[in-house]
């Protein structure tokens, strides 16, 4: 294992260690990782971290057990943003340059149509013939549906086990290509900026780029601010 500019892959134990041994095991692993490269991120449901140059990339599982864990733990969040009394992903863990793979989501036709009908009932989102006549070329998802799919992946992979305090908003949302039923979307997050709040001690503000990709094509891109409690 090399700690220079070459590719570095570390297996994490946070999903495999016995529950009563996780704090000690994770603490030891984090200490070892920080000694080599201080910009690693360790969400609870991650299984590997890749470092290339000065950037970090986190690959995460995205299965039903993680989703259920996030739902159960979210109900135990305390006022300082910690969950179950344990330190989780905090502001300090998400340094600029961090890239997190949020997993893949397949677009379900019936779920898409139900959303379109309820929230964005334009003809090309509901009717096959109208969609074929449109510039979109076929029945496609509302851009807001695609954004909601990204948000769910973000919550399940990061927020549900973090010190997140919400978001004041964002900018530059772009729907770069239509999304169709059956599409497999790969969700991603990149941290591009970080600062501590001047008016609220203990609060950090992250500038985050969220994106969804179908193969090599980016179909959604947005920039927003995430608020996370700090550890210190």
Overall CATH architecture: Roll
| Poorly predicted runs | 1-17, 33-87
Give the CATH class: Alpha Beta
Percent helix among the residues?
Answer: 25-40%
Q: How many E-type strands?
A: 8
Side-by-side strand order of the widest sheet: 1-2-3-4-6-7-8-5
Largest sheet data: 8 strands, mixed
What is the mean predicted local confidence, pLDDT? 75
Number of helices: 6
Q: What structural category arises from helix and sheet content?
A: alpha+beta
* Rg calc: 19 Å
Give the count of structural domains: 1
DSSP strand (E) fraction? 25-35%
CATH homologous superfamily classification: Hotdog Thioesterase
Order of helices and strands: EHEEHEHHHHEEEE
Q: Which fold name fills CATH's third level, the topology? A: Thiol Ester Dehydrase, Chain A
Distance between the termini: 31 Å
- The coarse overall form would be elongated
Structure in words:
By secondary structure, the chain is an alpha+beta fold. The protein has one domain: Hotdog Thioesterase (Thiol Ester Dehydrase, Chain A, Roll), CATH 3.10.129. Helices cover 27% and strands 31% of the residues. The chain is built from six helices and eight strands, in the order βαββαβααααββββ. Strand 2 (46-52) and strand 3 (55-60) form a beta hairpin. The longest helix is centred in the first third of the chain and has 15 residues, at 22-36. The protein is elongated, with a radius of gyration of 19 Å. The chain starts with 7 loop residues before the first strand and ends with a strand. The model is unreliable at 1-17 and 33-87 (pLDDT under 50).
């Amino acid at each position: 294992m090399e700690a220079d500019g070459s590719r570095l892959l570390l297996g994490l134990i946070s999903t495999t260690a016995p529950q009563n041994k996780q704090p000690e095991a994770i603490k030891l692993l984090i200490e070892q990782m920080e000694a080599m490269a201080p910009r690693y991120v360790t969400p609870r449901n991650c299984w590997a971290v890749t470092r290339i140059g000065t950037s970090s990339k986190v690959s995460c599982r995205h299965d039903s057990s993680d989703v259920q864990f996030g739902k159960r733990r979210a109900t135990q969040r305390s006022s300082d943003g910690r969950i179950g009394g344990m330190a989780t992903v905090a502001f300090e863990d998400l340094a600029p340059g961090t890239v997190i793979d949020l997993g893949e989501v397949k677009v379900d036709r019936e779920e898409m149509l139900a959303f379109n009908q309820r929230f964005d009932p334009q003809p090309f989102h509901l009717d096959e013939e109208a969609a074929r006549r449109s510039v979109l070329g076929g029945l496609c998802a509302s851009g807001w549906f695609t954004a909601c799919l990204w948000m769910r992946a973000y919550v399940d992979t990061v927020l549900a086990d973090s010190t997140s305090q919400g978001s004041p908003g964002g900018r530059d949302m772009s729907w770069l290509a239509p999304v169709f039923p059956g599409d497999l979307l790969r969700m991603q997050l990149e941290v591009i900026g970080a600062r501590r709040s001047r008016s609220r001690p203990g609060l950090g503000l992250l500038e985050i780029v969220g994106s969804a990709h179908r193969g090599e094509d980016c179909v959604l891109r947005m920039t927003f601010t995430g608020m996370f409690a700090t550890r210190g």
